[in-house]
Amino acid sequence: MRKFSIIIPTLNEATDLSDFLLALQPLRKHCEIIIADAGSTDDTHKISIGLVDQFIISARGRALQMNAGAKQVSAEILIFLHADTYLPAQALQSIQQGIDRGAQWGRFDIHLTGKSPLLKMVAQMMNLRSRLSGIATGDQAIFITSKVFESVGGFPEIALMEDIELSKRLKYISPPYCIKSKVKSSARRWAIFGVWRTIILMWRLRLLYFFGVSPEKLARLYRQEKCFKP
User: Fold this and answer.
1) Does 98 fall in a domain?
2) Could you tell me the pTM of the whole model?
3) What integer pLDDT is reported at residue 88 of this predicted model?
4) Closest CA relative to residue 135, chosen from 94, 179, 168
């Protein structure tokens, strides 16, 4: 049995998936790779063949997909990774070091790749906010022991903010172990929508969530804003 499982939710990620999965291959001696796909209509499955240990089909929704993937594992430590996010060198060793020190869950700092000079500031603010609040976001590569993941019932199966809600539940068990080594996450969605518009949208959604707006309503608002062309 391998000690780590990387669970990747996907939906039509074929464009950059090959490079992403190839970067993970050196880890497979100690880590299984599981894709939980939401019914991609592109070549996501074809590209994944031979590069992952399991490829499963799940109902659509990031929380649903990650929970479905987690049900397939037998590893001690789960790593939830977005398909546009690259782990740093020695990532597994850094996680193991945290677990050996008593950590039960945690996340990495993040670096956003892209041309806009604003992205560095955005990433710095994300890391600082996460460190101060104890809340991790999905693009920071959340990791967690399988026992603790099961004890909290996995990701809340809500339409949006599942990472924030999971972090809130985990904080009652222990603070996150924050790894300063940075994952590199693509800023493609920021570039398409616009950096400032994305900042404003995400803060607006978080504020509405804080005041009790349902994740379903937030998801509709998110889709509406993303489809709007200025």
Assistant:
1) yes
2) 0.91
3) 96
4) 168
Domain range enclosing 68? 4-188
Average pLDDT for runs of 10 along the chain of length 230: 88 95 95 97 97 96 96 94 96 95 96 87 92 94 96 94 94 94 86 74 82 82 61
What CATH number has the domain bearing residue 127?
3.90.550.10
The predicted pLDDT at position 229 comes to 43
Q: How many domains does the chain have?
A: 1
The pLDDT of residue 116: 81
Q: Do 32 and 73 touch, CB atoms closer than 8 A?
A: yes
> Rounded to the nearest 5 degrees, what angle is found at the Cα of 210, between the Cα atoms of 144 and 133?
45
Integer Rg of the chain from CA: 17
Longest CA–CA span in the chain (Å) reads: 51
* Nearest alpha-carbon partner for 30 in 58, 6, 64, 61: 6
Cβ of 126: how many Cβ atoms within 10 Å? Answer: 19
H-helix segments, 101-137: 118-133
Cα 115 to Cα 24, 123, 173, 189, distances in angstroms: 25, 13, 39, 13
